[in-house]
Each structure stands twice: as structure tokens, then as C-alpha cells.
Amino acid sequence: MGTAGGSSGDHLFEPSDWANESHALAQSTAYGKLPQPKNGTYLLDDDYFAEAMPVADVQLQRAGIRLARLLNETLGGTKKVATTASK
């Protein structure tokens, strides 16, 4: 699923872009697919989780990759970090 940690010059390495990407996914997947509340309570069914969990999993992978890259660059690490998250 695309670049996760970014490469040289890749906009996805900018924290503001991470936030915008996460916000867009939250609007389209998490909040955009919420069922109507019943008595003020949202009851999330299996269909909701089946759609939202893969997106959350990829976002968590991306976060780990981005954090690893940031720490390596900040602390002078020399190990290569993956730049893509699996789907």
C-alpha cells in the first residue's frame, strides 16, 4: 500500500502530511461509516470492523516505519528501515 515512511523528498515523511492522511482516513473510514446511534449509543457491528481494521492496521505499520526512520535520522542509526507498509 504505497510509501509509508517516505523516501528523500517524499511528502509522506512530513508530520503534517501524516496528520492530514490520518484525518482523511478517519473521516472516510472510521467516522464516515458509523451506523446511526441508538439511544445516543453507537453499536459497531462486524461489517464496520471488517472495513475499519485493515485501515487501522496499515496506519499502525506506517507509524512504526515513520518512527523508526525518524529515530534513526535523529540518533544517527545506520540500519535500513522499510519504506512501505504491507496491506
Describe this structure in words.
The chain has about 90 residues and is an all-alpha fold. It has one domain (about 10-75). Helix content is about 55%, strand content about 0%. The chain has 2 helices and no strands. It has helices at about 15-30, 45-75. Helix 1 (about 15-30) runs antiparallel to helix 2 (about 45-75). The relative contact order is 0.21.
Describe the secondary structure blueprint for this structure.
Blueprint: H1 15-31, H2 46-75
Largest sheet: none
Task: State mean pLDDT (0 to 100 scale).
Answer: 81
Categorize the overall geometry.
elongated
**Strand and helix order:** HH
Question: Radius of gyration, rounded?
Answer: 16 Å
Termini separation: 6 Å
The helix fraction, in percent, is 40-55%
Structural class: mainly alpha
Number of domains: 1
| Overall number of strands | 0
Helix tally? 2
What are the segments in which pLDDT stays under 50 over at least 5 consecutive residues? 1-10
Quick overview of this protein structure:
The protein is mainly alpha-helical and 87 residues long. It has helices at residues 15-31, 46-75.
